[in-house]
Amino acid sequence: MSINDLLAEESLEDGLAHFKKLMETGAATSDLWHKHKNGSNRCLTVSAVKLSETRVLGFCKNITDRKQAEDELRQTLESLRNAVSATIQVLISAVEARDPYTAGHQMRTADLARAIATEMGLPGEKIDGIRIASSIHDIGKLSIPAEILSKPTKLSEVEFSLIKEHSRIGYEILKGVQSPWLLAEIIYQHHERMDGSGYPRNLKGDEILIEARILAVCDVVESMASHRPYRPSLGIEKALEEIEKNRGTLYDTGAVDACLRLFREKRYQFEKGLILNGNPHRNFIPKIAGP
Ligand SMILES: [Fe+2]
Questions:
Q1: 261 within some domain
Q2: Are residues 56 and 170 in the same domain?
Q3: What predicted TM-score, i.e. pTM, was given to this entire model?
Q4: Which residues sit with Cβ closer than 5 angstroms to ligand 1, an ion?
């Protein structure tokens, strides 16, 4: 009887590796799919020790039920991720339909946030969360009258206080969305500042999530570097000077340093980042990594 008769096709490679390890080290444990004589496959944990060159002692435990439960859990997680992606895509389209300016701002901000989080060495799961939250961070502006959002002149105090409501409203919109990330909270905090001078809750330093601290830097840089209804672009250099000048007081030092490195040493450009995704208005939400 050969290994081909014992093991299912998907476990043949693992089976050979198991045998090699057993011969070389004297012991091996692997989960392998075994062909049962009734025609079905069973997953077994196979533990073996080498007694001599010709004798091996092995134990098997049937773990088929556990494997199937793990598979079902993986599929459930996958569909939860897909559902979140679809929800976010709908929110992006809603903003796009009403306010293309904000939609473009969110896309560019999200791409820079992803680049900074990667530059800072954050784990993949956090990078996904930052990118997704950033892509809808101004969703709360849906509730603000369009005339105020696109007003070409200076805003009155009342108008400005209405605009400031958008981070709280964004939180309210997102707080019911089940997702593996703190999307609602990141959006709630994206106008907070390290010294407590931000809004709406005057959070300080570590009270602000790292995701929101990164988003704050990107939001400022993208806004200053882009045209606004009430002023032309101030240019990327001015934007970088702003974060450099307020590094540690308003903005997170690590996020500022990573941002400066990206633009000044690694030649990051907003447009370049978006080209990587093809059409910036399509397929923006990344395929979210599984566990
Ligand atoms: Fe905002």
A1: yes
A2: no
A3: 0.73
A4: 138
